[in-house]
């Protein structure tokens, strides 16, 4: 990892911390720069805008989650066996609830 990569990661780590602590809407570039220990000018030189920092953080986190999912699926002998399967022309009527239960209807016809 280069020094530039390390600085980029430090900025994204600080942004994540600030977003969690203050909320995305209330976090400022000054908050992020202060957390990293750099100037706002350096922050903007590295990312260009507050929106670019947020998008870079979202990209990093989604890539990390995708990699974890791939690793998990690679460890499963038959990934398809763990998926809800349905008959052709039908779709699942409901997703599992937070408690793991489902609504009474299991299948809904795609024809109406």
Largest sheet report: 2 strands, antiparallel
In one word, what is the shape?
elongated
SSE string, helices as H and strands as E: HHHHEE
* CATH T-level topology of one domain: Arc Repressor Mutant, subunit A
Q: Helical amount among residues, as a percent range? A: 55-70%
Strand order of the largest sheet: 1-2
Let me know the number of strands: 2
CATH-level-2 architecture of one domain: Orthogonal Bundle
Report the total helices. 4
Q: Determine the mean pLDDT.
A: 80
Integer-rounded radius of gyration: 21 Å
By CATH, the superfamily of one domain comes out as Homeodomain-like
Write up this protein.
Strands 1-2 form a two-stranded antiparallel ribbon. The protein has a domain of 76 residues: Homeodomain-like (Arc Repressor Mutant, subunit A), CATH 1.10.10. The chain is elongated. Helix content is 55%, strand content 5%. The C terminus is likely disordered. The chain has 4 helices and 2 strands. With 112 residues, the chain is mainly alpha-helical. Helix 2 packs across helix 3.
In brief:
The chain has 112 residues and is mainly α. The protein contains four helices and two strands.
Task: Please specify the SSE layout and strand pairing.
Elements: H1 3-22, H2 29-36, H3 40-47, H4 50-75, E1 90-92, E2 107-109
Antiparallel strand pairs: 1-2
């Amino acid at each position: 990892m280069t020094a530039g990569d390390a600085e980029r990661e430090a900025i994204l780590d600080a942004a994540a911390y600030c977003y969690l602590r203050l909320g995305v809407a209330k976090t400022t570039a000054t908050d992020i720069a202060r957390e990293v220990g750099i100037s706002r000018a350096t922050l903007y030189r590295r990312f260009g805008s507050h929106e670019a920092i947020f998008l870079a953080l979202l990209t990093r986190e989604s890539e990390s989650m995708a990699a974890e999912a791939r690793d998990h699926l690679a460890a499963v002998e038959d990934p398809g066996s763990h998926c809800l399967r349905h008959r052709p022309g039908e779709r699942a009527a409901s997703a599992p609830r937070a408690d793991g239960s489902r609504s009474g209807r299991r299948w809904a016809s795609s024809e109406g």
